[in-house]
Write a sequence for this structure.
């Protein structure tokens, strides 16, 4: 990639919302590729059900704050990285605390529909480049994972629900942004009695698997790195 591209990567400021199955792998890829200034945001703790797909989830980290466990790992990759871990959920009440305009890239790996919509709206009003993950649950085929502009995403129920929500509210993102998605949709065959999910503040669990969530996360990271590999995309020009 060359020294100039690597310098742009090191200068870039990235904020990542959601460090679950998709976001945790995204963070790993970013730091391994040279991103040094990364803010990770998530309010959850590691649950046993996370172990099948989330990077920092192991039998030893169950019960720990996700962003703290992930930060610890990321610093073993690059001890000089500036990793800011925020144990908080992005909502209408907390949104103003995040100062999105200070970042070069905003990565959306949020599950909640209303919070996701708000983050998209706010990020699109800043100079930051937004990349968003659509639904990674109930997928199996890695060859069907793809990237498209939000309004051109096809076959993804989450994207459809978001677009409908924007239309009903008569509010629309101020600029275009790319999404990672899959047009595959499988039936959830697993049984869940709700005990663990309710314990960790989840009301519904859809099955997801590591190779899919990881590819989603790596693809989001790849979009950031691809953008920074272009010579005229120097984040310092905006600082």
């Amino acid at each position: 990639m060359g020294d100039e591209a690597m310098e742009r990567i090191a200068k870039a400021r990235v904020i990542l919302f959601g460090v679950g199955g998709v976001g945790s792998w995204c963070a790993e890829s970013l730091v391994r590729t040279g991103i040094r200034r990364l803010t990770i945001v998530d309010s959850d703790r590691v649950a046993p059900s996370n172990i099948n797909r989330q990077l920092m989830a192991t039998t030893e980290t169950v019960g720990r704050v996700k962003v703290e466990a992930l930060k610890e790992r990321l610093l073993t990759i690059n001890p000089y990285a500036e990793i800011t871990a925020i144990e908080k959920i992005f909502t209408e009440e907390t949104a103003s605390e995040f100062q999105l305009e200070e970042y070069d890239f905003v990565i959306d790996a949020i599950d909640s529909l209303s919070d996701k919509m708000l983050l998209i709206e706010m990020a699109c009003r800043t100079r930051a480049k937004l990349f968003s993950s659509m639904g990674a649950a109930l997928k199996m085929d890695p060859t069907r994972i793809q990237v498209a502009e939000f309004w051109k995403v096809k076959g993804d129920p989450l994207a459809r629900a978001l677009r409908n929500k924007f239309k009903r509210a008569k509010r629309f993102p101020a600029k275009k942004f790319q999404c990672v998605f899959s047009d595959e949709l499988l039936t959830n065959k697993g049984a869940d009695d709700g005990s663990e999910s309710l314990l960790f503040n989840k009301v519904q669990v859809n099955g997801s698997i590591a190779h899919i969530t990881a590819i989603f996360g790596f693809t989001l990271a790849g979009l950031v790195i691809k953008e920074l590999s272009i010579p005229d995309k120097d984040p310092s020009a905006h600082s």
User: Anything to note?
Assistant: The chain has a mean pLDDT of 91. The longest strand covers residues 13-17.
